[in-house]
Amino acid sequence: MLLIRNTQVLKSPMTVRSRPSCTPKSQKTSKPSPIPGFWSSRSAWKRAAVNTTRCLVGCTIGDFSAMWYLQSAHPQLGITAIMALSMAGGVTTSLLLETTLLRYGRDRLAWRAAAQTAAGMSMISMLTMEVAENMVDYHLMGGAVQFDSPSFWAAALVSTVAGFLAPLPYNYYKLRRFGKACH
User: Fold this and answer.
1) Which pLDDT does position 20 carry in this prediction?
2) Collapsing DSSP states into helix, strand and coil, what is residue 133?
3) Which strand (E) or helix (H) includes residue 160?
4) Which residues of the chain are under the pLDDT cut of 50?
5) DSSP state, 40?
6) In which residue ranges is the amino acid composition biased (Polar residues) (predicted)?
7) What integer pLDDT is reported at residue 124 of this predicted model?
8) What secondary structure does DSSP assign to 70-104, as a single string?
């Protein structure tokens, strides 16, 4: 199907006929003009989202893995210590993942340069992500990792979204203001 303005053209071997598309004529079909200003760069938002996602994967894997291990093997630590240690695990995993991506990805940095670049990333962004994830997880599940519970997976999804959204504006800001990726 081809869309031409507000009409769909349907091709068949014998005829070409047109019918109105799903958009009523009363609605405006023009795109809204972009908001001028600092926060309106689509390319910077896309890059910030990619950078934030890369960090989110490492943080989430490390955070939930450490939380699961510590709850299973060391429950006497208590939830506060477990969540603090799991945050450290999330940041560490994020750094390891980023180092590997910088080494083998598009950048092809040497291991030392990749590790230095990853270590020079924004700790503010990573800690914001970890705090947001853990606060939401604690609020919804009390910090408990229960792989067999649908409630856990729903809470994990919500906390992961919170972990993505919390540092996103900061990552965008760093890209626009300094031309540097945080991750």
Assistant:
1) 39
2) helix
3) helix 150-165
4) 1-34
5) G
6) 18-32
7) 87
8) HHHH-GGG-HHHHHHHHHHHHHHHHHHHHHHHHHH
Domain ranges of the chain: 41-178
Q: Give the pLDDT of residue 181.
A: 60
Within a 10 A sphere around the Cβ of 92, how many other Cβ atoms? 16
State how far the Cα of 63 lies from the Cα of 143, in Å rounded to an integer: 11
In terms of phi and psi (left: phi > 0; alpha: psi -120 to 50; beta: otherwise), the region of 91 is: alpha
| Three-point CA angle 100, 93, 138, nearest 5° | 150
pLDDT at residue 70, rounded to an integer: 96
Nearest to 52 by CA among 106, 133, 149: 133
pTM, to two decimals? 0.74
Residue 63 vs residues 27, 57, 112, 181: alpha-carbon distances, Å: 47, 10, 25, 23
C-beta separation of 52 from 160 below 8 A: no
What confidence score (pLDDT) does residue 129 get? 95
pLDDT for 122: 79
pLDDT at position 154: 96
Question: Rounded to 5, what percent of the chain is helix, strand, coil?
Answer: 65, 5, 30
Residue 106 near residue 114 (C-beta atoms within 8 A):
no
Q: Of 166, 167, 164, 158, give the one whose Cα is nearest residue 136.
A: 158
Order of strands, sheet of 2-4, starting from the edge strand that comes earlier in the sequence: 2-4, 7-11, 16-20
